[in-house]
Amino acid sequence: MLENMKMNSSELARNVRIDAIRMVHEHHASHIASALSAVDILAVLYHDIMHIDPQDPQMKNRDRLIMSKGHAGVAVYATLAECGFFDKEELRKYYSDGSVYSGHVSHKGVLGVEFSTGSLGHGLGVAAGMAMLTATDIPHGPLEVLITATEETGMDGANGLKPGVLKGDILLNLDSETEGELYVGCAGGLDSTIEFNYKEEAVPAQVKAFRLGIKGLKGGHSGMDINLGRGNSNKLLFRFLKTYAAELGIRIASVSGGTLRNAIPRESFALVVIPAANETKLQAAIKEAEGIYNTPRCIRQTHQ
Predict the structure, then answer these.
(1) Which of 147, 155, 280, 303 has the fewest CB atoms found within 10 Å of its own CB?
(2) Which of 114, 57, 115, 44 is CA-nearest to residue 84?
(3) b/e per residue, 208-239, with b = 16+ CB within 10 A?
(4) pTM of the predicted model, to two decimals?
């Protein structure tokens, strides 16, 4: 609670909105909607509720805010500046090359920020771990808190964890988006690089080219949604190609599908050629597949 401020929480929220909009506009940044939706919450927390001291940001018994929605970094920086953690002129450095005020919330060099965030959902687990480590009124046995980074892009944290660092026998995964729920496992990933020899062939005469695709699937997160039985466009496309390869004389020119390692693919495409005489059979096979896959957006496009 900031008792010496010359404005109330409503006035603080107004100033933060003005700062955030100016910062995003001047530096051609993004996520303004995420920032504005959090402004009132931040203003009330910092002005009326949290035990903090801008003159002593590392005060031992301070309250700590973990902004899990790191996309709202511009609102956090503006709030901290308005509360006196650093000079408002610092906000002009937002989203600039070499600046500590990055697009997502970062604690590196920014007074008042407790933890860097941006990977959605991990803030709750981090906050729970920090709360347990600092609490004096919650009985518990020996406790270790493991916080890793860049797992969604490269699993750097997990790969960098050396054997023997952790001493505990039980690991609880707190990378959850629902308070009060604990995971007994988490999403994993496997990168495969497969090489094989093949010989390119010239396109035969009397064939037609088609771009086959599957679109309109729900997709989802490979961890949160993997148990929902949603279609994987890569699997469905290759199932179709394998089923009709011999019957239709399918020859593959190229395939593509999926964009992220931790997402269930929802779009996949293949450029193929078949004997022109089999076009009618291909159309029938596509219609049958659309009924099986339960999506009306299986597409086909003739290439001249």
Answers:
(1) 280
(2) 57
(3) bebebbbebbebbbbbeeeeeeebbbbebbbe
(4) 0.62
